[in-house]
Amino acid sequence: MSKFRTVAVFAYPAEAVVVKGKLESENVHVYLKDEFSVAADPFATNAIGGVKMQVYKEDFIKAMGILEQSNPDLLKHRVEYIKCPNCGKREAREMRDIETARSLSEKMTAIGLSIFPFTNSFNYECKNCQTKFDVNE
């Protein structure tokens, strides 16, 4: 069992290093998984799954809070569920994220939206109230 949890996923190491600096300034130890693989071959970032920002399990809640408060633009890099603007629960997931998909139909939808990214105007869906929304709204 892993002692790390993934907080965010970035396409390029430069983005991840900036956020890593913010988290480490708040005394959260950060590990960037696949940082050097993506740096060596930037075109492989989609195949590898990007640079995964991981923290110790005991620092996970603190890291998520720092990401949420420091910059709203960082919400698009988060892996965990985000807060629904309609019902207020933290059960909204990115529809393109295969890792947080629970059922086969959600996984197939995520794969389809990843292949054809311009087919949907909303990026998130709440599992509680089924509201579809975008973080930038």
Molecular structure report:
By secondary structure, the protein is of the alpha+beta class. It has two domains: 4-77, Alpha-Beta Plaits (2-Layer Sandwich), CATH 3.30.70; 92-133, no CATH class. Helix content is 34%, strand content 18%. It contains five helices and six strands, in the order E-H-E-H-H-E-H-E-H-E-E. The strands form two sheets. It has a three-stranded antiparallel sheet. Strands 4-5-6 form a three-stranded antiparallel sheet, with no helix packed on it. It is globular and about 35 Å long.
Q: How large, in whole angstroms, is the Cα Rg? A: 15 Å
Total individual domains: 2
Helix content: 25-40%
State the low-pLDDT regions, or none: none
Structural class: alpha+beta
CATH class of the largest domain: Alpha Beta
Strand content: 15-25%
Measure the end-to-end span.
38 Å
Q: Helix count, per DSSP?
A: 5
Main sheet record? 3 strands, antiparallel
Count the strands?
A: 6
In quaternary terms, these chains amount to single chain
Question: What's the order of the H and E elements?
Answer: EHEHHEHEHEE
CATH architectural type of the largest domain: 2-Layer Sandwich
Q: Would you tell me the overall average pLDDT?
A: 78
Global outline: globular
Strand order of the largest sheet: 1-3-2
Task: Describe what is shown at a glance.
Strand 5 (124-126) and strand 6 form a beta hairpin.
Task: Describe the secondary structure blueprint for this structure.
Elements lengths: L3 E7 L2 H13 L4 E4 L1 H6 L4 H4 L2 E6 L3 H11 L21 E3 L9 H12 L8 E3 L5 E2 L4
Antiparallel strand pairs: 1-3, 2-3, 4-5, 5-6
